């Protein structure tokens, strides 16, 4: 599995790197680090830009070498890791281009905890990556620690269940994880049919035994997801989205409810078909 991690060498970006490195103890993983030098500075700041860019590039190369050395020092197992340093004005664009060029399976980014959540998680860079990536994005909160992936909560409206499961199953199989499919029943808009029968049918169709379906009667999708995540002790939450508005609602609500979701549970987002 190939994982791309954008890094600005901050402690926050190291959160994603540590999680992926720890995951590589259990799975065969190739890591690629990407650093994008921001060239969107005002014109006055670009005076003598050639020399300035050369100095910034050299500084970035040194920081990357130091980062690679620290990863190697902190880990005893062999890690397949490479890097790329480029320049541009849109990190979202370069993440997507680099991911497609290198046949990346997952883009992995680190996020801040409750205090600065809205600003950092849904700031321009993270939002741009989540919204524009055609490749699944794994978002790692600052206090998340990899301890294996046993339970993946997949929040579904059931509209594209089979298509979406088709994308999730390969990752679940790699991790030998349970896919806990959660449907929130608001105002009696529940699943029309036999849930247990549907569960058996999915297990058979996908040749994967670790599929469990649950319907939760609750008025708020946000509260429902947070409650279920706690109930099953989830290691990861999966959502399909084409915008970050709903994700922001989920995380902001979990802050007020004082749950661990926003600070400890990785979020795995896929592009939803529109």
TrEMBL record:
Domain of life, per lineage: Bacteria
Listed name of the protein: Nucleotide-binding universal stress protein, UspA family
Domain UspA, chain residue ranges per copy: 2-141
Matching InterPro entries: Rossmann-like_a/b/a_fold, Universal_stress_UspA, UspA
Family named by the database record: Belongs to the universal stress protein A family.
């Amino acid at each position: 599995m190939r994982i791309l991690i954008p890094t600005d060498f901050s402690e926050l970006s190291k959160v994603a790197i540590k999680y992926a490195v720890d995951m590589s103890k259990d799975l065969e993983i190739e890591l690629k680090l990407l650093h994008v030098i921001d060239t969107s500075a005002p014109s006055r700041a670009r005076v003598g830009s050639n020399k300035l860019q050369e100095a910034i590039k050299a500084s970035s190369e040194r920081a990357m070498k130091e980062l690679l050395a620290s990863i190697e020092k902190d880990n005893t197992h062999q890690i397949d890791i490479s890097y790329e340093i480029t320049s541009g004005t849109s990190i979202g664009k370069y993440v997507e281009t680099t991911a497609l060029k290198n046949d990346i399976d997952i883009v992995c980014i680190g996020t801040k905890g409750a205090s600065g959540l809205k600003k950092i998680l849904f700031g321009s860079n993270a939002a741009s990556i989540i919204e524009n990536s055609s490749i699944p994005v794994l978002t790692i909160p600052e206090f998340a620690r990899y301890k294996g992936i046993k339970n993946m909560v997949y929040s579904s409206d059931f509209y594209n269940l089979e298509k979406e499961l088709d994308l999730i199953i390969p990752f679940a199989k790699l991790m030998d994880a349970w896919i806990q499919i959660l449907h929130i029943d608001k105002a009696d808009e529940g699943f029309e049919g036999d849930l247990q029968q549907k569960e058996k049918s999915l297990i058979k169709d996908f040749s994967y035994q670790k599929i469990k379906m649950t319907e939760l009667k609750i008025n708020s999708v946000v509260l429902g997801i947070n409650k279920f995540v706690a109930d099953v002790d989830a290691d990861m939450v999966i959502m399909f989205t084409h915008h970050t508005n709903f994700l922001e609602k989920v995380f902001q609500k979990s802050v007020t409810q004082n749950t661990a979701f926003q600070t400890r549970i990785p979020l795995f987002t896929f592009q939803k078909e529109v």
